Amino acid sequence: MKHSALFASLVVSASILAGCKPATPQVVAVDISIQLYSDGAPLALEGVPVTLANSEATVSFDDRTDASGSVSFSVTPGSYTASTTYKTVEDGKRLTLNGSNSSVLVTAAPSSPFRLDLKKVESQQLIIKELYTGGCPLDDGSNYTRNDHYIIIYNNSEFEADASDLVIGALNPYNAHSNGNKYYVSGGLIYENEDWLPAGGAMWYFPGEVKIPAYSQIVIAVYAAIDHTATVTASVNLSDPSYYWLANTSIPAFTHKKHAVSESIPVTHYLYGYQINQQTAWTLSDSSPAFFIAKMSHSELEALCTDTSAFDFTGGTTATGWAAKLPRQSVIGAIEVFAAANLAASHPRFTSDVNTGYITMTLGKGYTIYRNVDKEATEALPENQGKLVYGYSLGTSDIGGSTDPSGIDAEASIAAGAHIIFSQTNDSGKDFHQRFKSSLKK
User: Fold this and answer.
1) Which CATH superfamily is domain 30-122 in?
2) Counting CB atoms within 10 angstroms of each CB, which of 180, 351, 359, 366 has the fewest?
3) Does residue 351 come out as left (phi exceeding 0), alpha (psi in the -120 to 50 range) or beta?
4) Which residue(s) pair with 34 in the sheet?
5) Digit-coded pLDDT (tens) for 118-170
6) How far apart are CA 29 and CA 430, in angstroms?
């Protein structure tokens, strides 16, 4: 034993003299499993694709669940996010199972399996197809914002849609990166387990009957329903007589000069509104709106927006901070936008049952937030044979933005006579991308 100890000592000494360094400890991979859940119980569903990505989003792993609804990975210790989007058909309706768990903390002895709770998203007829709020460059190089905003509502089905009870609005705070966001506390929304959302600014409605044909759309100008290209080349023409306008005629306090309308827009295409926050214009964020469409009767909307005793005052007790408690079950579409320049300071405003994820937008470039094509559903329509245009090139992923993963050019395909079915997962990061230019600019 003494000889062995002496020999070991000599070997170590020789190694030091030779300049050898101690071996770097080897990181050992850990086997973990992730189990699907739905409605609080394990979901035995085979073939669901699950992605596991590290917290820096630099490494990801993909696999599919087995018959028990479980999937296994071998990863090094660290923090991960598990997510999935799975499309299926149930009782003749298109469904998306959508889920995300950002709390997969893998240690040397992990608590396994980790849960991945799925939410069922049933396809809606009326969807937000496009949201243009970021403005564009002026001819002198500065930015033209807060004037030429518009929204496109699309009928994502083969049946005529009734939009008469549609309600349009946005949540407080109107910027995702607001320093005074009192709703997002300790890493979560204070109303996550409540039945309401904080609607601010104003909410708008159609005063008359509005029907949208199958696979068709309506364009709604937000502030100025005029031809903006007459003074700003890069902007958009919102004076088309088929377009609608969020009119300030029903809200006397909205006196800001940006509320303007062309004589070509018929009065029957004016939307009316109820004011919530006391401003001179609607407070729809240029850079990072939490925009929604909902359905409720005009009488319900009026009561919601005018009964201040039922308002939420978390955002402040003054007339610029309070919010109407919008019933969550009334929301049929939502989009969460974060400003590219303020990602680190941004927080979600929609609860996870309404929307997960966010889409990033760069301000003042003429970019727009546009919905992705549901490739599988669109290609399955027999009438689209030979009409779909591929090689989509108007995404912005090459300049730090995003693009439509389907590769289908929706606008070019529509012009060729195709019917487009757009993605509906209730995850803004998966449903939308940042488009290089407005779809109204051909």
Assistant:
1) Immunoglobulins (2.60.40.10)
2) 180
3) beta
4) 71, 114
5) 988 878 999 999 999 999 999 887 888 779 999 999 999 999 999 999 999 99
6) 30
